[in-house]
Design goal:
Distance between the termini: 6 Å
Largest sheet: 10 strands, mixed
Helix content: 25-40%
Oligomer: single chain
Number of helices: 20
Shape: elongated
Strand content: 15-25%
């Protein structure tokens, strides 16, 4: 194992080589040949439509730069650490998204992000291409975080932050997944352009208008914005939207009933003229009065004469409650709607169904205190996205890598309680420091992550109580209100940490070997190293980890059926290694210091190979 995050560049090259082997020569891609194979012939005209800004190329390199960092477990800040499937990750989302590539590649059903709107007061910082982890530690040690419009690279800084993160996030989406992104007018146009590039124009779904206020602000100096946008892209055409549950307002339209069921009257005319559709301009006889009814020449009948006679035979023509109407209507039966009577989601989401800003502030205030977090999104808004784009029967993963106050985690738990779903969440948040003169600081919070974690704790406890489950409740599907906390840090293993050798003297071969005699850093635990191995082997972080004692040696079983056995102890005896092999049905990871000498290593190699056990050394 090399201790690095997924090699995205090599993965993409492998895909191309499998499809176009003739476009590779001496291991390198011939881009001109590839374009020719796809029918794109090279000419000398370099003028073409594209979206460019300063730093875009470096953004792409930054997204594909492999990481040596890790995520360290923090059980003491977690809830139900050993049983939950939910994750809360503290760290720069760029590095975290890189580290999730192996374990969560094409596993996420839905992403929702409420990214910085770039209003001039948002946390928009420049990434450091040379040392992203060092930059992360620098940023989280100070509270200067605005991106004022007076900066010469106002839009550029925002694009350079968002672009690489969205590229990495796209890799995590399932083929039937979708991403929902909150944004306002300021960067909506730019976001559309970069998403067209990342996800493909053909995968644009909608730009939903969300009514964030129920009335204009009286102190606004121009035209008060009443809405934000929720931009939606799918990963591919395998994504399918769900129908939304019907409301009392929907059902109020179905006020008539006959022997076939409950129906509503629908227009029998269309917006075509008699000149455009002469076959739809004909008289209909009112059956109760005998009167001949003609449509207007500007709005002819919706149905042909033949289809009208079929409607009459099937009792689908409605002449009013007392049968004396002058114009017919078509009977639309509620039970005949597709999807069991649900409604198709539209692009206009009112506060009546999706909440508004004041509601979000009150929700957060009721949980963690007033004015603790100023810009949350309402739980109902995110629930509506979950209703459109997630399933109740599958264990859908919902990712939010701008987690803020953790409204997304709250919405996932709330929706699971309401519909019996088994969704799980992954929250990622940079631990931004809180200003000392703020209400949040006075309440005891020192960074944004502390607010987010506390909200999940309190929201989860409240949901358990309201659902009647309680701490000891027994239901067919126990509501998961727990979360495992992980924190971004440098590698736990000296051999994988690119920063642990710092002086010229230590850079000598002897110094490097001496530094690696003990594999795990002195301030790290074996559990830290175990989760790092899992992450870099591509094993999800919610898999069960069980500590074992085998002949006095500590090992860790991963997965319910021990899909992987990890042992990082040194100088293990031969008989102990054979016992470890008995517990490892498929895979094993050992430290190269686990062996007393080369003969033990050699014997272990043949023993594991003969038993069909795949193994790796670190």
């Amino acid at each position: 194992m090399d201790g690095l995050s997924m090699d995205i560049e090599q993965s993409e090259r492998d895909k191309l080589r499998a499809l176009f082997p003739q476009c590779f020569a001496e291991g390198k891609l011939d881009i001109d040949k590839l374009l020719t194979m796809c029918g794109e012939y090279i000419d000398d005209d370099f003028e073409k439509y594209e979206f460019k800004w300063k730093g875009k190329r470096d953004c792409l390199k930054l997204a594909q730069l492999r990481s040596t960092a890790t995520l360290r477990p923090c059980p003491e800040e977690s809830v139900n650490f050993n049983s939950t499937n939910n994750l809360y990750i503290e760290g720069d989302n760029l590095e975290v998204l890189k580290l999730l590539q192996k374990a969560y590649f094409r596993r996420v059903k839905m992403i929702y992000i409420d990214m910085p709107y770039n209003t001039g007061h948002d946390f928009v910082y420049e990434d450091d291409f040379s040392d992203t982890l060092a930059r992360y530690k620098e940023v989280t040690s100070q509270t200067t975080k605005s991106n004022p419009e007076t900066m010469g690279r106002f839009h550029t800084n925002w694009l350079n932050m968002v672009y690489p993160r969205l590229r990495l996030a796209a890799n995590l989406l399932r083929d039937d997944g979708a991403i929902f992104m909150s944004i306002d007018d300021g960067e909506q146009a730019n976001l559309r352009k970069i998403c067209d590039e990342i996800f493909g124009e053909e995968n644009f779904v909608a730009n939903i208008v969300w009514q964030k206020r129920y009335s204009p602000a009286n102190d606004h100096k121009t035209i008060c914005p009443m809405h934000d946008f929720v931009m939606v892209y799918r990963k591919s055409d395998l994504w399918q939207r769900n129908l939304l549950a019907r409301t009392e307002k929907n059902d109020a339209q179905y006020r008539y009933e006959d022997e076939q069921g409950v129906f509503r009257p629908d227009n029998y005319k269309c917006n075509k003229t008699a000149d455009e559709r002469p076959n739809l301009y004909y008289p209909i006889i009112q059956p109760n009065t005998g009167e001949e009814i003609w449509p207007s020449k500007d709005a002819v009948w919706r149905y042909s004469k033949e289809r009208h006679f079929e409607n009459v035979e099937r009792n689908l023509v409605f002449w009013g409650k007392d049968g004396s109407a002058k114009v017919p209507s078509y009977k639309r039966y509620r039970d005949q709607l597709r999807g069991g009577g649900g409604t198709v989601p539209g692009t206009w989401w009112t506060f009546e169904f999706a909440g508004h800003n004041d509601e979000a502030v009150k929700e957060t205030g009721n949980l963690i205190g007033n004015r603790i977090f100023s810009t949350p999104k309402p739980v109902r808004l995110i629930q509506r996205m979950l209703q459109v784009s997630s399933d109740t029967e599958t264990e859908d993963i919902i990712l939010d890598f701008f987690a803020g106050s953790s409204a997304t985690a709250h919405a996932v738990m709330q929706q699971n309680m309401e519909d019996g779903g088994n969704r799980r969440f992954i929250m990622v948040q940079l631990p931004e420091l809180i200003p000392e003169n703020s209400e949040a600081f006075a309440a005891g919070f020192r960074n944004i992550c502390e607010i987010g974690k506390e909200r999940i704790r309190r929201a989860g406890a409240g949901l358990l109580e309201s659902s009647g489950q309680g701490i000891l409740g027994q239901t067919p599907r126990q509501l998961d209100i727990g979360f495992k906390v992980f924190k971004l840090d440098s590698s736990n293993l000296k051999a994988w940490d690119s920063s642990h050798i710092t002086t010229d003297e230590q850079k000598t071969l002897l110094g490097r070997l001496d530094a690696m005699i003990e594999r795990i850093k002195p301030d790290r635990t074996a559990l830290d190293a175990v989760y790092e191995v899992m992450l870099k082997l591509g094993i999800p972080l919610d898999y069960p980890v069980s500590k074992m004692d085998v002949n006095g040696t500590t090992a860790y079983s991963i997965g319910e059926d021990c899909m992987l056995l990890i042992c990082l102890e040194s100088n293990i005896k031969v008989e102990t290694l054979e016992l470890l092999a008995d517990y490892a049905p498929a895979n094993m990871v050992l430290a190269d210091t686990s062996f007393v000498d080369d003969s033990v290593m050699s014997n272990t190699y043949y023993t594991l190979r003969d038993r069909g056990i795949e193994f790796k050394f670190i």
